[in-house]
What does this fold into?
Amino acid sequence: MTERPLDVTLPGFADPVGQAQACFRAVLDAMARPGTLVRAGEGLVPPAPLDPATGAVLLSLVDHDTPLWLDPGMQPARDWIAFHCGAGFANQPVCASFVLAQKLPDLTRLSPGTHEQPETAATLILQVDSLTDGARYRLRGPGLRTFGMLSARGLPDDFAAIWQRNRAGFPLGVDLVLCAGTTLAALPRSVTVERVT
Amino acid sequence: MPAETPHNARRHWMAVLARAAADELAAGLAAHGGVPVYQCLRGPESGLVMVRGRAGGGGAPFNLGEMTVTRCTVRTADGQIGHAYVRGRDARQAELAAALDALLQDPVRGAALHAGVIVRLAAEQAAGRSETARKAAATKVQFFAMRNMRAA
It folds into this structure.
């Protein structure tokens, strides 16, 4: 059996254990306080089109036990992800534990988990253009005493309605990690989203 | 003997490199153009791998035990990628073995390096193995007497 050699030109984390733990902690904090911007992936140089935060989240969370589905736009980074994460790739989005995308995919095509095991739902890692400007959303839910705010450029105009449908199936549903540059924010399935501007 | 494809040739030299000590690898590199300019893509990093076996080579697989392995992947300035997995925790050995693996794939330097380093290391390792086998063979017990008694 001869497989195509992987085309990898860039290293992963310089300090794999320390940096993966730091990024894991950043994702935990972001999930616990929806909408909060946290820093991740500083010093990491992933291949295009990945941003440092996106690459760091992949290196920290994805491995051979968690099938990953790639949006067609993310295919150029496939070899780097395969080499550094040891990731297995899913052919269908519904089979994936993690979904990596640049454009919001149809959330109803992702695994929402089961009532016995809602934790098996897919986590969507979505790279957006910016988390500091763009459309503004007001967030409510666990982890937010009153409400939180999120700005994002690169989400569809009807994102609040799409998220509402994802929220309606709670405790089933998809969790979302938004990455841009070296920052990330998270929307767990428990949060409700309302567009402000 | 398997056909001499590039794949098999590489498998052979990677095995030879994995069995060679760091100093032998460094000496081989120094004698053939020195250590190349390279970047570590991964590692060197140590970890455990589970070694599995099959009783008699054909039985059900079982876990024999874990062993420490160090791996490294480097990319030379020319774009060749070299991998190494070596037994133990010697990071320098893994890094040098990966650098040599990358250089051996180089169409220009590869052949000379193979002739100068791999062939010699392979011969030394084969000599070491046959020496061990010779010493072990001297202690082998032949149960002639018992077999003859049963036959009688």
Observations:
- The domain at 16-195 of chain A is CATH 3.40.50.11310 (Rossmann fold).
- The beta strands of chain A are 38-39, 68-70, 98-101, 123-127, 130-140, 148-153, 175-180, 183-187, 192-195.
